[in-house]
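Service request form, structural biology core

Requester: graduate student, group of Dr. S.
Request type: structure prediction, single chain
Budget code: on file
Notes: please return the result as structure tokens.

Sequence provided:
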Amino acid sequence: MAAEVGGDSGAPKKGKKSGKAHKPKKRPRIDMTPMVDLGFLLLTFFVLTTTMSTPNTMPVVVPPKITEKDEVEPPKISERKVITLLVSRGKIYYYTGIENPELHVTDFSPKTGIRKTLLERRAEVEANYGKDEMIVIIKMMDDAHYRDFVDILDEMAVINQKKYALVDITPEEKELVEEYRKTMEKTS
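Core staff response, request fulfilled:
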């Protein structure tokens, strides 16, 4: 069965009747089957060759895994070059150094948040040690969201921080944050 447009239906036409028998005019018949086939062929071609969207990924450089037999000693780094960020739900707790850390808190606000803190810390480190010497250690807390992780990596990209590491949070740091939260609740 072919798809057709036009053609004679075979029914007599209404209108003036004369004594002569009129031969009905035949309309041209157009077979639409090839056009439908072509349409499906083009549709299939474009669906299969078009890329709908490419996934956006954030590049994260991961160092090679060190095994026990590698005997690699980590480099010695001055603790004054390091700032540690403990990322929580919308808040960032941070401290410098290792011994007797004094915990501070900030957020992701553009003018007064973590960006300002990191830029100030970088200026101090550059004044004492040189350019690109600051190291940021990022530790995600249990209550942090994936958005917080993306936001902190975005901040590293915005300030063009070259040296940073993603590390697991220690139980001591969790206790430090809990103590800080308790003291803040008491004062407010």
